[in-house]
């Protein structure tokens, strides 16, 4: 029987250049979806998927993330004095969400390198990896929970979440190809990080959720720099296929948002806001007014 997946790694050391100037002093993982930082949504997903300990891989200027998941005694004291109990409950839930520890990635050498920085903190156990740029709304079935379930069914092989992307978009992703089995899983035989346009072996793209067996550590240690001159997680996973327990790509259900992209971030904000009862109606009215005004403008 495979060991239960209790630990997760969340890389959060990127510079966030796509969100400058907002990400100059605030880590991009703290930018809010309505009023919740993206990284909190990702950690909530992890916790709903059975994760108990989260290892954040931080770079410089990331202490805001650590503070966010800690108690803020002064603030909590002031809220208590003012009788703001709802806000107090929200804050203490965030601080109690999971056991969170941080490790540093001292050099920006890529996603594979970032995950490797968590090796000692995780140890010889299966590990979930969640990319904070990928927001996932699986409703009752959180993305990582779909993967941990699949992992238990795959006899020690790694599992990675995939979704079919539109033709012409493959170069933005890690792409996998392989044979579909009777469970609907793809036994991966081929994998390439950001294939040049026109060369992708399929349209099945990795979407930022992984459960990897301990064999990933030696694989990462021996992975050389690949796409973009960086140590790629996709390249290390290839070693799981060639010399390790194998890898399955799991087509997962739910809506994924690319919160690392401006349009994807705005999309996620609107979609999550529309799920809030108090915001839904007035937001729809505002959006309709904006649409009407823009249609009129484009007709003039
Ligand atoms: C990373 C991975 C890539 C994956 C993507 C999903 O790339 O390297 O394989 O498809 O996340 O969001 P990034 O978008 O960080 O460049």
CATH structural architecture: Alpha-Beta Complex
**Looking across the biggest beta sheet, what order are the strands in?**
8-11-9-10-12
Tell me the β content.
Answer: 15-25%
How far is it from the N-terminal to the C-terminal residue, by CA? 67 Å
Ions and ligands? 1-O-phosphono-alpha-D-glucopyranose
Q: What is the residue-mean pLDDT, rounded to a whole number?
A: 94
Sequence of secondary-structure elements: EEEHEHHHEHHEEHEEEEHHEEHH
Q: What's the shape?
A: globular
Number of self-contained structural domains: 1
| Rg over alpha carbons | 20 Å
Give the CATH level 1 class: Alpha Beta
Poorly predicted runs are none
**Which quaternary structure do these chains form?**
single chain
The CATH topology: Spore Coat Polysaccharide Biosynthesis Protein SpsA, Chain A
**Largest sheet composition:** 5 strands, mixed, barrel
- Total beta strands: 13
User: What is the percent of helical residues?
Assistant: 25-40%
> For this structure, what is the CATH homologous superfamily?
Spore Coat Polysaccharide Biosynthesis Protein SpsA, Chain A
How many helices? The count is 11
Based on secondary structure, the structural category is alpha/beta
């Amino acid at each position: 029987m495979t060991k239960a997946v209790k630990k997760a790694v969340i890389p959060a050391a990127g510079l966030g250049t796509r969100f400058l100037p907002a990400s100059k002093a605030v880590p991009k993982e703290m930018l809010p979806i309505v009023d919740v930082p993206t990284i909190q949504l990702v950690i909530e997903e992890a916790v709903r998927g059975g994760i108990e300990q989260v290892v954040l891989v931080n770079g410089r200027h990331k202490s805001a993330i650590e503070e966010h998941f800690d108690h803020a005694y002064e603030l909590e004291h002031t809220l208590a004095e003012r009788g703001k109990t709802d806000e107090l409950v929200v804050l203490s839930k965030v601080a109690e969400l999971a056991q969170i520890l941080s490790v540093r990635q001292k050099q920006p050498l890529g996603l594979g390198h970032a995950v490797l920085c968590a090796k000692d903190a995780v140890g010889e156990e299966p590990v979930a990896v969640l990319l904070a740029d990928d927001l996932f709304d699986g409703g009752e079935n959180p993305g990582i929970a779909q993967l941990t379930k699949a992992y238990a069914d795959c006899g020690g092989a790694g599992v990675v979440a995939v979704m079919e992307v539109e033709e012409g978009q493959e170069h933005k992703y890690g792409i996998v190809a392989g044979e579909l089995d009777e469970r609907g899983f793809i036994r991966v035989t081929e994998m390439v990080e950001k294939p040049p346009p026109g060369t992708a072996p399929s349209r099945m793209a990795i979407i930022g959720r992984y459960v990897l067996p301990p064999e990933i550590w030696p694989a990462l240690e021996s992975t050389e720099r690949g796409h973009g001159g960086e140590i790629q997680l996709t390249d290390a996973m290839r070693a799981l296929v060639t010399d390790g327990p194998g890898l399955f790509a799991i087509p997962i259900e739910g809506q994924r948002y690319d919160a690392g992209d401006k349009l994807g971030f705005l999309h996620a904000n609107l979609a999550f806001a529309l799920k809030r009862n108090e915001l839904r109606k007035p937001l729809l009215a505002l959006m309709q007014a904006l649409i009407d005004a823009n249609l009129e403008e484009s007709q003039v």
